[in-house]
Amino acid sequence: MSLFPFKDVRDGQREFMQDVESSLREGKHLMAHAPTGLGKTAAVISPALEFSLKNNKTVFFLTPKHTQHTIVIDTLKRIHKKFKTSFVAVDIIGKQWTCPHKVRDLDSREFNEFCRAIKREERCKYYNSVRRGKLSEKAKQMIAKVKMEPMHAEKVAELCSDKGLCPYEIATEIGKDANVIVCDYFHIFSPQVRKAFLSKLNKELDNMILVIDEAHNLPSRVRKLLSNNLTEFSLNRAVGEANFLGFKTLADDFRDIAGILRELGKGMAKFDERKVKKDEFADALIGKVGMKYNEFVESVNDLGEEVLNIPNRHRSYSKAIGGFLDSWDKEDRGYARILKKGKDTVLSRTCLDPSLSSMTVFDDSYSSVFMSGTLIPVGMYMDVMGLKPERTELREYMSPFPEENRLLLLVPGVTTKFSERSDYMYRRYARIISEIAAEVPGNLAVFFPSYQVMDSVGGNMKGIKKSILAERREMKKDDRIQLCNRLVNLSANGGGILLGVQAGSLSEGVDYANNLLDAVIVVGLPLETPTLEIKSLIEYYDFKFERGWDYGYIYPAMNRALQAAGRCIRSETDRGAIVLMDERFKWQNYRKCFPKDFEFVTTEIPTKYLRRFFQ
Question: By residue range, what is the domain housing residue 236?
Answer without folding.
Answer: 228-351
